[in-house]
User: Fold these one by one.
Assistant:
Number 1:
Amino acid sequence: HPGLTLLLASSHGLADNDGKYGQLFDLGDDGKGAFAAAEAYGYFGWGIWRLGAWSNTADHTRLDGSSDQENNWGLYGVADGGFGETRWNLRLGWADASVSESGDFIAITLEQPAGPATLGAGIARTGASSNLTGGDDSLQAELYARFELTGGVQITPDLQWIRNSGLDGSGSSHDRSIWVAGVRAGYTF
């Protein structure tokens, strides 16, 4: 059955408010605002879909260099499904390119049980805003194997390739590519 989720929050969290809880609710402070989102969802024969929109009324500086302050907004869609034992996830998103450094996003992930592990592969592209001077799209690909241990504990070794990661420590956000190997631990209860 379909449904609707609504969210209203401050545009700033505790770390943005000098650690004072009372400032979380002062939406009239300079530069602050509200974050609101609405998401519709529903089920289809082999999965779930979600479509949403969000708005952030905090002051955002325009990327074209003009002195105007603007709100930020975005739209997104998510679908999860499967065929046989294979599971998939698709995500799409758009944001206001006049203030968001990332104007669009698309990602797909596939998972397949294989003996003692669940094997997964994913690829994601984050598009630089057309208003961002010198901006470049980012691309990330990942392979992983999730092993279910005992009592809800999971260990997931992974290998990622990221183009234009900005993770090289040089201060440049245009590093051409980087390889990252890691291990994630999880607990499901």
Number 2:
Amino acid sequence: MNRTEDPEEKIVVAARRVFVEKGYENASMSDIAAAAGINRTALHYYFRAKDKIFQAVFGSLIGPFIPKVQDILHSDAPFFDKMDRLIDEYFEVFSQNPFLPRFVMNESGRDVRHLVEVAESIGFRTYISTLVELLETEMAAGRIRRLPVHVVFLTFIGQVMFPFLSRNLICLILEIDSDRGAFEDILTECKRTVSCQMRLLLDKDSPLVVPGV
């Protein structure tokens, strides 16, 4: 191991690859040690349990995202400006970590309670609570269309995650070379489209007819 390299960071990077490939349940401490190029004794010196490594991995991916989106939600900007900035942040974190959406989906299918517990440990629950409060306040004030909050969440998350989940399929169908920047151009267009669709859904003056509303 390079002495100038942070051992914990090297372990977290290696564990990230292992968790993405095998999932939390199927990944072993031996797998992580081998990927990091160390023995299990050295691994246990830094992380006593696999759960602690998983928390460190998830924290390294999502941790910097939480304060950014909290700052956006607590800002004095108009609601739709906040929404556009949230979309930017989601696309940014997924662009930097394109495996993250699939990783989250896979872990949700394996053990969603464990995933939620880890997410809560790095402040994700606080972010969600703040977002729900913002939506309910804006709806109550009549500034946006009144909709069930879960409908807004499902629509938003589906639109920001699907382009990354479907990257390989889209590139194959449209015969796009994903390594030459063409897909990044698609993501730029998708981001603008997501913004338009969310405005169409939530703008109380939009012509969209929402069943049951």
Number 3:
Amino acid sequence: MKNNGENCIVFFKEQGQSGNDYGLKDEDFVLIIMTDFQKEMITKYGKDKICIDGTHGLNSYDFNLYSVLVVDEHKNGIPVAFCFSNKSSEDVFRIYFSAIKNAVGIIETTTFMTDDAPAFYNAWSYVMGTVKNVLLCAWHVTRNWHQNLNKIRNPEKRKIFNKALKAVKEELCLETFSKLMKQFIQELLNDSDTCEFGKYFQ
């Protein structure tokens, strides 16, 4: 990384160092990076939307990378902070978001998008305050649905309901979506082969 006098490390706790002040164990590692450019971008675009992405097992140390992103006026995602840690917990995410808050102040965003782990939003709301719209990443939602479709043991019915599920997911009209969703759930619950998935989906 080019050294222009900028200190982009906003938090660092190495392994072997006491982490009692932060609720961390001695063996925990946390490195949070935020450049001046990233600070500008979160201040400029963070009011609209904040997205969180986690990547696990990046190297032989089994560290995780957590990225906070904003979306610019061209719908491009811009990473505005990085957190490397061997731990995946609400405590680490509170430290992460507190480091961002210490760097740029409170970010009052309208929309918060994350995967299906509640720890991200719980930590964000604890540090920055509640958010009007909390969205789940479509990729994670689809992955979870497909993992649970195996609750439908009949392969033909699984195929039919997977196709119906896709149609419901892609419906843009709110009124039509609501009708399709209600009908979809009712059909799942009324069939003994699909009611287990219906209970999960509901």
Number 4:
Amino acid sequence: MLLFGVEIPLAWILTAPFLAWLVHYVFFGFDFFAKQGIPTAEPVLPLVGNIWKIWKRDNLKIEVDRLQKLGNIYGTFEGKNPVYVTADPEIIKAITVKEFDNFVDRLVVIPEHQEYVRRFLFVLHGQEWKDVRNGVSPVFSSGKIKGMSRLMEECCSSLVKLTEHRAAKNQGIIDLKKLFGSYTMDVIASCAFGTKIDALDDPNNTFIVKIQKVFHAPRMTTAFFFIRLFPWITKLGVQVFPAEEVLFFANLVKDIIATRRKENQKRGDVLDVMIEEMDKEAAALKLDPTRKPVMTEEVIVSQCVVFFLAGF
């Protein structure tokens, strides 16, 4: 094709608009906060923005340094998406309390096809999130938590005994991070799953091995990195949490639910509370079949798995 008397291949002409768009997408648009007079975290890399920092081990230190340098409000980019960061107590209070109805959804990209993970409370959006949260809320009432204190005290007694034993054995040198990590998992497993795993005494427990696989750092970091940059890849089956390990915890909870129903067991833990809510809802559905069920077995199993993942 002739253009201004110069022969230009047709392929060049067809490709040029795409290349122009690609260059603009990769390199431009990072002045979003500057136009509003808000400091921007540096460095902002082409295409990835500031999300590169998830590869850093000292992630928290990076955030503290930014707050000290930029102030209580600044902007970052996750890929091309602008993200406000604030440490202002009044703004945080407004978002989490006063104006919470306008900020219920989290920016979480999880594959919709992944069973159980898609029902994690922090993954749900809109009305579904509100419905499930209302169903889970009784778990956190003062009365229910007080009732679970007995389970926590049992784990605490094991912690005290083990601490005394290790202190005497190792000349007072104890790995506190590892010790309290195991204690936390024992408490979560007892209060949420209704099971005893003895993470304090048995670091090679199947629970521990499985949870470590779930949070295998390089794999999880890589998955989050690319999903935040390119959300559409979740349609290709990319998963953040390994399906085998999630299914392990899900099957465990289902077995516990089946056992409790069969033997009419009551332990006063998180699982008991949610089973009660599911039974109340089932009774209400008989009176009004048009109601949409919220506290299904999948939802309950998902929240129990979340409790354990959160405790790791």
